[in-house]
């Protein structure tokens, strides 16, 4: 048999009876054919079904269905009347009826004299004059090989496209140069071969003698690879069969290379071997659609053959060629809710389930965790416009897929407890969207209502900005720089208007301090909290000085025994302080009330005042005595919350307000830096509302709770009770148990997004970026010291928090020798960051030691995914970047999953400052302009792939391309086309003709990479070589505005309705506004009229008119200070020889002020003592109440205490006891005057 095989192989012309007698044939239904001597095979024109088209082909002649084994012109069938002829110059040519060439044998240079159809099925062209075989079909196979046929190195076969089309299909069988027999998928347009999905594994790179030389199909029906060393590797065997069989091996249209046989009695071919065994489970390539087309899936049917099926809600693009893929029976989500928005309507979305079906190469996001059950997976896909399918499995993983889905397959599992379910997102109603509903009634009603409000809206649009501009300019003129005066405080600022409203126009007086009147108020912005507002009506030198003192000193003083300063107002001429309100009244109420204290109580009061004064001095002068321990661990979140400051004052721990919101972070910050740069925060994912409380409980728990008592945060792994807390100068906040001399918890071991000098990152230590400038929630990036010793950066899934692939590594994991692996990350005091190895060596990450001078340092994982080392000297106004890790974040590829550094459909580019910026291509805009990393959305509807619904993508005039040089999205490819013919214009045209294509990347290697939506991992990669570059061709609609779904037939109605409605509203407005304005001014006039109160009992002091005192004080110009209930002004009495006096004025007399006025006139007017200031007279005219005292030339106690030269400790003690003594004398004298025993 071997001898026969060799003879047939190398001597095909020995059998003379095989020659064809007529080589001029015309294509028709009864064309002559050339039959082999045995009659088994025939060569001629083969009619394609009922069409008038023909293939030049070879077929099994004795089999009724005439199975084809070779064809010449599958891509270009010959019309009826086409002619095959052997020309006079020996050319063998197939031409159409017009004489245009359709086909000729390749590489046949020598003239042909004869042709033969052999019994092997080989058709041969010869030159008998030279005894030479010019061409043979066995060396140029189509989709089939036959026994005795070989496939040499480089030999290639192609599948046909479908049952009815013999064009080159999507699959290729090739004997590679290395000796492997392989199967590939092909790009349908360019013919480029994608990745291998089957290999014979007969390529031994180390020993070429073990590599394949050719594929042989022998007469027994066996197919094997003959190795160069003479050995063989079996591919398929037919030798076990007995009897007389036909054999053929065909690369079928489904991508399976099958060995068939058939005996003479059979009516059909039988499959002996499938290569590969299960085509559905192979993954041909990351590019292309897979075995079946896009949006379909492959399943083995009952006959053992692959079938391409569509999921529910989809249908085949071509029912006659199911491998072409599937299309949705509904419009794809537009991702533009203003255009259609069905995907935003949750009631319009449902899911169809397919068990054990998957599309493994269409993932763009993985979410996993115990909480990700099937329903949460559905919800996540429903909420995501990009998601078309989600794959849920019993490992609680949710793989979200983007359109088009590829490489679909049905993979049944034997384990009922482990399975996958495809959740297909479809529209509930699959019918075409009603684009033109009759909305004329709705338009009419709506436009009337709209028209009625147009004028009012215009009025507001003009009035509101005008008012805002007026108050803004007024504020700018009056506002003073607060930061230089109050740099060290954390109290809240209030506007004058807020406090005016809170006190109802400063109506209810509580009393008077040394320099101001105190009013009771209610803060509407703080859940109706009662406050005491101290007002300096007109600021003079001493009042201004006291204002600065109280804000800067009391603002940083926090103790349960002291009234807390909540805020202040420093607007224009207004100076006000806002304190917490004391419900139990003042010391004055106790001393001067109905029930007066006895002598023991007086003594306690005196010493209490002295003790309070001493404590206050010690507390506000920490340079005298200080400790790192926080004195008050019960803190409430508010604008003026107390904070725990480190001994040096460098760092502070407490509540950090988030911008203008009433939300707070429990945080640590640089206290001396004006912008208070954060270095740690506890509750970034859950900011604390105002009124939340941090407390150290009786059982030693350190807990942050919201106003309702619900826990927000507590230190992790802190089992031992806490007794003390300290803010260290390193920036480390420490909780301790002093009884056990044990550190319970520290911020340095629980970093947020920043580490500081002296801080380390141990194995397992993790930091997370914040989400954005305004949000401190966990962001999309993670820095971690892995168990193996590597310091790595990862991207994170934004919903589940799963870490994707590493995009930076310190490469300090030596699996061969663990002593060379990292042990911890150290940030030393010189500003250097390095990995300390287990063997004591170091690997540098970033260096700051070359810098000289006094610097602050910090290393932060920023929101853009860059781990940056910053520094800042004392004279600088901003932080400087010392090192970026990685150097260029834009050029890394974090993961095949996720969107990349920037969000979907955007690209990363380094700006002029060396910082990454996330940009949108032309025709796209940012999802969130305030957080550009969120990605971009198209400003037009995506193509629906449903031409009957919209069809703009089918209208070539509606499609245009914008170009971006050096920009790419490397992980969004679904098709590669290349070749000399693929210039930029052909690349554009290919994308334009393809509904799935949203971007094509063309490069100077004549490659055209087609991309699908959404685009991920975009980056700008400029090249230095002007001759080698890539250009992104962005497919957009020429008109980016919303598609006009229906012609607008309501313009006239709309305009008329607006005009009519506006007129009606304006008339009503005038009718209501005029009487309302009149009523308002009338009521205001009535409110301003006040009756004069009754007079006081007669006293021996003199009465003055209001005019006399106004002239004496120069219009109440020079303030001396403030008493408990009045403001004191300096004056000169012209009627008393120019005597200097102190005039105390009660500006607005309320109940308490009226009472005090009577008391002071009737009691103090007849009281005379060397230790008391004498009352000279009073004014009781209309609403005016004034008291005239003798003037004290030596100044006030406040000048002495808060002046430039502060008293020594001995003087302070004297003052404290002097105050007590003065109180005793005053109380005794007052009681005697009142006749009290």
From TrEMBL:
All residue ranges annotated as the Bulb-type lectin domain in the record: 20-138, 630-748
Binding locations of ATP: 1145
Pfam families found in the cross-reference section: B_lectin, PK_Tyr_Ser-Thr
Keyword Repeat attributed: no
Alphabetical list of PROSITE patterns matching this protein: BULB_LECTIN, PROTEIN_KINASE_ATP, PROTEIN_KINASE_DOM
The keyword Kinase belongs to this UniProt entry's keyword annotation: no
UniProt keyword terms in alphabetical order: ATP-binding, Disulfide bond, EGF-like domain, Glycoprotein, Membrane, Nucleotide-binding, Signal, Transmembrane, Transmembrane helix
Membrane-spanning segments: 442-472, 605-626, 1052-1082
Annotated ranges, domain Protein kinase: 504-768, 1114-1237
Signal peptide range in chain numbering: 1-17
PANTHER family: G-TYPE LECTIN S-RECEPTOR-LIKE SERINE/THREONINE-PROTEIN KINASE SD2-5 (PTHR47976), RECEPTOR-LIKE SERINE_THREONINE-PROTEIN KINASE (PTHR47976:SF116)
Protein name in UniProt: G-type lectin S-receptor-like serine/threonine-protein kinase LECRK3
